[in-house]
From TrEMBL:
Signal peptide: none annotated. The keyword Protein transport applies. It holds the Pfam family MotA_ExbB. Keywords: Cell membrane, Cell projection, Cilium, Flagellum, Membrane, Protein transport, Transmembrane, Transmembrane helix, Transport. InterPro entries: MotA-like, MotA_ExbB_proton_chnl. NCBIfam families: PRK09109.1. It is a multi-pass membrane protein. The keyword Protein transport applies. This is Flagellar motor protein.
Length: 269
């Protein structure tokens, strides 16, 4: 479910607020503007100093990806590769040249173009694996923004609390002010720890999971492209690639694509 990240964050926030209200805390007590500015402004600044401005510009897109990314359609990718394998086995590898430009996925298009161009198998694999490694490195850099923020935010919260306690200690002559002042001081720590563990670190983990899914998808495509170049039987290609598809999705993929219906069910593997 692509909205799971948003739902999970909302559930966590509602759970925290609900628990606080059951304890008798008013939500208005959390509206501490100085603490908000210190924690979020400080976290933004030190994170930007760590990863650079260019990476920070990607943050809105990274949030969008984490909150709305579609799950990989591995079964559809298997069907696509098997279709190309059938065409190549029937008409030859050069017959794929007419279909390359119509492929939406740039990774698959590049791999098949290399096949059509007669690239050496070892060189083809090296080129495509380098492409996968570069993609994984880019994704890691994106997730690191949120990992960095998740590490800095609690520290910014502690800084805010210490600053608040300094203010408290400077007003010991006014006991009636101590309670509200101490409470306000600890709001900063709450914001720092809360936003790190409710937003930043979960988003970083989600981006890392999405990256791993895409690496798995591209590995499937690479193995399929190599099988096409080797001239493997389409049924053998399908059986090999279906091992990348989770067992729960194999029946659905086979029902959706008749080319895969002859592939043995490997759920027990």
């Amino acid at each position: 479910m692509k909205a799971a990240t948003v739902i999970g964050i909302v559930v966590a926030i509602l759970g925290i607020l609900g628990g606080a209200m059951m304890e008798g805390t008013s939500p208005a007590a959390f509206l501490n503007i100085p603490a908000i500015l210190l924690v979020f402004g400080g976290t933004l600044g030190v994170t930007m100093a760590s990863v650079g401005m260019e990476t920070m510009k990607k943050v809105p897109g990274l949030y969008k990806r984490a909150f709305s990314a579609e799950p990989p359609a591995l079964g559809a990718k298997v069907g696509l590769i098997v279709g190309f394998a059938e065409r190549a086995r029937r008409d030859g590898l050069l017959a794929l040249e007419s279909e390359v430009d119509s492929i939406d996925d740039s990774f698959t298009r590049k791999g098949l173009q290399l096949v059509v161009d007669g690239t050496d198998p070892d060189m083809l694999r090296e080129i495509m694996e380098t492409e996968i490694d570069a993609m994984s490195a880019r994704h890691k850099a994106g997730a690191s923004v949120f990992k960095q923020a998740g590490g800095y935010a609690p520290t910014m919260g502690i800084v805010g609390t210490v600053m608040g306690l300094v203010h408290v200690l400077s007003n010991l002559a006014h006991p009636e002010m101590l309670g509200p002042a101490i409470s306000s001081a600890f709001i900063a720590t709450l914001f720092g720890v809360g936003c790190a563990n409710v937003v930043f670190l979960p988003v970083a983990a989600r981006l890392q999971a999405l990256s791993e899914e895409e690496v798995e998808e591209r590995t499937l495509l690479l193995e399929g492209i190599m099988a096409i170049q080797s001239g493997d039987n389409p049924r053998v290609v399908a059986e090999k690639l279906m091992s990348f598809v989770p067992p729960a999705q194999r029946d659905e993929a086979q029902n959706a694509d008749p080319k895969l219906s002859a592939v043995p069910d490997a759920a027990a593997a």
